[in-house]
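Lecture 7 notes: from sequence to structure.

We start with a single chain of 281 residues. Read the sequence below before looking at the structure.
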Amino acid sequence: MPWKRCLYLQQKYPINYIEIRHAYRKRSVNEIHEDINRMIIRISIVMLTLSLLKVMVLEDELGMPKSSWFSFISTLTENFLENKENIGINLKPGFMLLTFAYLLSPLIRTLTLEIHPTTLYAYFAVTQILFVVDSVSASIYNTGSSAEVKDEWTPLSLEESINIPKKISSNQILGLTSYFLGFILLSSRFSKPSSVFNFLCLTFMGYIILLNHAERLGIHKSTNAMVLVYVSVSIIIFLPDIKIFCIYSCMVTFVYSVSHMSVWLLERDLNGRPSHPSKYQ
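Now the structure, written as tokens:
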């Protein structure tokens, strides 16, 4: 009798059941490319915020009143929290961090005045590249335990027969921490508290709310939409500073080159992997 028939004493298969020999095929190549596009959208939002910083530092205007920001963000937060099950994110920690950073902005400004902005940009670039590479690699190799392939007539234990995807919560913490810490430090470049508050609000909405809306609209699933995003972001960031545009182009080229090469190696490995035909047809 094949082991399939005696698995769990003839109980029904669980929803996330997968054969060990198919563990490396759980995530399709299309899903991997979608994760790569998510990273590109994330980088685009980061570069847009850097361009915003450049413009705000030059003008240093008062901008939107604080009362308007609180009303706007509270409305969005309430809407997101009501649909938390469909969205999958929690805005409370981010909003608390934003408020806490604003209250400590005078202290942060005093501690970071001697740090050159180039140092902050370099920190941003390194942490975001590491975050993107780690996220893409976690997506490509998002398989369960690396158990050896067994013949199909050998019973498997419960742990071996269910493929549990790897968790990337630590990676998400790295990305959010590097983002918020970087922009909290960059906010110290402003001399007016209102500019600090406006900048933190815009970065908060851009990195969390705008990023989530882009994913809900399915932009990462369309090649044409990604091209439109790249062209639009390139035009916007080219106007304030050509250096930011060059960095953005280099990062997009780097991510697509490394990720597509990794996907190609993965496909070649899967296609070259010997199959194990079932003894019982």
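The chain has a mean pLDDT of 65. Keep this in mind for problem set 3.
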